[in-house]
Design goal:
The protein is α+β, with helices and mostly antiparallel strands and 377 residues long. The protein is built from nine helices and 16 strands. This is YbjN domain-containing protein.
């Protein structure tokens, strides 16, 4: 049974049911939280991790952070920051306009933001060449982490740290391991392996796959013995052709999946056991009767799940039952949601405005060509 998107102030709980009779309120509590807060917390986590990692960077080693152009849709524009440790200082370089294609060069305002953050113009710091540069002592590693984080987020327009990549190399160009940098993805070096388990720390053994047939002739899958959250991670990792430990998991425990210009989250709930596959399709949108009618029309076409508007955000949500969990149901929900969200954000934006999760934020730091500052900066 599907329901119309609830207008602002609607407090329906018992009468509005979603996904096989579950109370609507049970699905909406966290989904209606401020999305900007969620993204902000991810950046704070990244900044803290970077502040922890920089002081243990060996002399001569460097960290290069890059906004992944294949994930961000910036084509051949590579927005990157490099930080190298010496005996007493850190030296950082940030890409300038001479290293960017004409369509993606920084505006005057963006250049001003770089300087305000503490970057010196190209050529001022020894070795900076065409890049912006800065030099800070080791005891200001926390300040450097703030500068780098704000550069990637506010100036280069990275919408989420999950779509940053980083490489950590020593003076001889060999990989160096550092603590993981939040949800950023390591290409070389980092993260450090988990600490060795001592004799005083008992290890909980994972059940091995049994080759004994069940009564129905199948094999016992050890995944059915794992907690629901771990089973969900295994399914999502298998779907994305990666390992569970390489999934992008935020501070709330939500798994983030990039789907074109949309972001899809997978959240596990304990009471009742439920997996919610949801996406903030559009943000900063003005709720109108016409929008509600459109979302109701689209929801009625969906076999499961719904579309609705809460505050200034349009959400899409597909629930998957956690009791008697079936991995095929979750895989289908993720596949449906990733395709649906990436298509709907474009269609609804064209009709109602608002901002997509990715795409609009990436271009916010850019200005029309007549505002470019030229090759020097």
């Amino acid at each position: 049974m599907t329901t119309d998107p609830a207008p602002p102030g609607d407090t329906r709980t018992d009468s509005a049911r979603v996904g096989g009779g579950l109370p609507e309120a049970a699905l909406l509590d966290d989904l209606t939280a401020d999305l900007r807060t969620k993204v902000g917390e991810a950046w704070q986590e990244f900044g803290r991790a970077l502040a922890t990692a920089l002081p243990v960077l060996p002399p001569g080693a460097s960290v290069e952070l890059t906004l992944d152009p294949t994930a961000s849709g910036t084509d051949d524009a590579v927005y990157s920051v490099n930080v190298t440790a010496s005996e007493a200082t850190f030296i950082g370089f940030a890409v300038g306009n001479s290293g960017l294609p004409p369509a993606y060069r920084l505006s005057r305002a963006a250049v001003g933001d770089l300087v305000a953050l503490g970057w010196s113009p190209p050529g001022v710091i020894d070795g900076s060449g065409d890049s912006f540069g800065l030099q800070l002592p080791h005891d200001e590693a926390a300040m450097l982490a703030v500068i780098v984080t704000r550069t990637m987020r506010d100036v280069y327009g990275a919408p989420h740290p999950a779509f940053l990549t980083y490489a950590v190399t020593g003076a001889d160009a060999t990989p160096v391991q550092l603590p993981a940098l939040g949800t950023a993805r390591a290409l070389l070096g980092g993260p450090l392996p988990p600490p060795a388990v001592t004799a005083a720390e008992p290890v909980e053994e994972k059940p091995e796959r049994s080759e004994e047939p069940e009564e129905d002739g199948g094999l016992v899958d050890p995944a059915v013995l794992l907690p629901l959250a771990e089973r969900v991670q295994l399914v999502v990792a298998r779907l994305l052709k990666t390992k569970p430990e390489q999934l992008q998991v935020d501070a709330d425990g939500d798994i983030g999946i990039r789907a074109g210009s949309a972001m899809v989250f997978v959240r596990v709930r304990d009471n009742p056991p439920l997996i919610d596959v949801f996406s903030p399709v559009l943000t900063e949108i003005e709720p109108t009767e016409r929008l509600y009618r459109k979302l109701s029309e689209l929801t009625n076409r969906m076999p499961i799940g719904r579309l609705y508007c809460s505050n200034d955000t349009v959400w899409a949500s597909v629930p998957v039952m956690g009791r008697d969990f079936q991995s095929s149901h979750l895989m289908l929900a993720v596949q449906v949601m990733t395709g649906l969200a990436d298509e709907l954000d474009d269609r609804l934006q064209g009709e109602f405005g608002g901002k997509r999760f990715y795409g609009d934020a990436e271009k916010s730091a850019q200005s029309p060509a007549d505002e470019r500052t030229g090759m020097y900066l």
